[in-house]
Amino acid sequence: MTKAEEFMAKGNGLYAVGAYDAAIEYFSRVIRLLPKSAGAYCNRGNAYRHKGAYDQALADYNRAIAADPKFAKAWLNRGIVLEQGGEFSLAITNLDRATALNPLDSRAFHHRGHCHFRLGDPAAAIADFTRSMSINPDLLDNYCLRGLAHCASREFDLAVADCRRAIEHSPRCAPAMVGLGEAYEGLGNPGEAAYWYEHALARRRELSDEERNKAETALKRLRPESASRR
Questions:
Q1: CATH of segment(s) 143-230
Q2: Which of its termini does the chain have fewer beta carbons within 10 Å around, N or C?
Q3: Domain definitions of the chain by residue range
Q4: Is the pLDDT score of 207 beyond 60?
């Protein structure tokens, strides 16, 4: 094993246990030995991303892509950073490249689906989540997000099926509960809708501001006496 391989292995081991600062140091040692190592830049970018240092992560993904433009993981991870920063259109451009280079990466389709959803294109989101599921049925976040996309498309029966599947695997999945509330309301079942909105709000810390506001507004409409006690 060369020194670079040894440092890379140590960095990967530290990254796996969440020791990101130490991992960054070892990936940096690899880069000093191999200045064009796309893998080392990408791995160091991942460590920076998990620390919340998004600008440094993005810079490393840029370097990885410059070193190897066909390195699918670098395109994927740059797309994820852009997604986390709310730059959904730019993220999609990167994730398009990631899926073209590796059409079997379920995560790339998953993240692209989320970007399409956030940009108000539920049909494209559903297509990507479905493709991601076909590659990796165990990526369970797809069920919740596809359920929310079905709600946005007013496909409420399909939304119920997906959100229930999400809750079956993760009983505390509050966003899926909001999805069920919205779906049942769309199906004309206000009692079941209110039930799920209430359950979601009992886990309000797991909701985004948008999801929490949606549930609170709906509950005021469906059960004003219950909402007034919150």
A1: 1.25.40.10
A2: N
A3: 143-230
A4: yes
How far apart (Å, rounded) are the C-alpha atoms in residues 139 and 124? 18
Q: Please report the DSSP string for 94-147 in residue order.
A: HHHHHHHH-TT-HHHHHHHHHHHHHTT-HHHHHHHHHHHHHH-TT-THHHHHHH
Place of tokens 């040894």: 6
Contacts of 61 (CB under 8 A, 6+ apart): 41, 42, 45, 74, 77, 78, 81
* CB 64, CB 41: distance < 8 Å: yes
Contacts of 226 (CB under 8 A, 6+ apart): 194, 198, 219
d(CA 196, CA 176): 9
Residues 63, 143: Cα–Cα separation, whole Å: 34
Confidence of residue 185 (pLDDT cuts 50, 70, 90): very high
Per-state percent for the chain, helix, strand, coil, to nearest 5:
80, 0, 20
